[in-house]
Amino acid sequence: MDWHLLGLSFITVFLSELGDKSQLAAIALSGRSQSRRAVFFATAIALVLTSLLGALAGGAVAEFLPTRVLKAIAAVGFAILAARLLLFNDSESAS
């Protein structure tokens, strides 16, 4: 097992999930429920399952497309998102 990759993946996901909507949902559910343990196990299983599906999907896509193409697609996608955030006014959706 590649321990460096395991640690890097853990730190990246852990930091990105702090304050995420999944955490806010877990807080809201545990505050209203009788069993905090059930909320913990359900949210933990859900997070593990979505991570598993993401890893499987990423592995499947990587089998068909070279890494360079995947990086290019990701870069273009992020550039489009950045351009939309910077150039287009969001006031139309607020009204």
UniProtKB/TrEMBL annotation:
<dbReference type="Pfam" id="PF01169">
    <property type="entry name" value="GDT1"/>
</dbReference>
<feature type="transmembrane region" description="Helical">
    <location>
        <begin position="69"/>
        <end position="87"/>
    </location>
</feature>
<feature type="transmembrane region" description="Helical">
    <location>
        <begin position="38"/>
        <end position="62"/>
    </location>
</feature>
<comment type="similarity">
    <text>Belongs to the GDT1 family.</text>
</comment>
<dbReference type="GO" id="GO:0016020">
    <property type="term" value="C:membrane"/>
</dbReference>
<keyword id="KW-1133">Transmembrane helix</keyword>
<dbReference type="GO" id="GO:0046873">
    <property type="term" value="F:metal ion transmembrane transporter activity"/>
</dbReference>
<keyword id="KW-0472">Membrane</keyword>
<protein>
    <recommendedName>
        <fullName>GDT1 family protein</fullName>
    </recommendedName>
</protein>
<dbReference type="InterPro" id="IPR001727">
    <property type="entry name" value="GDT1-like"/>
</dbReference>
<keyword id="KW-0812">Transmembrane</keyword>
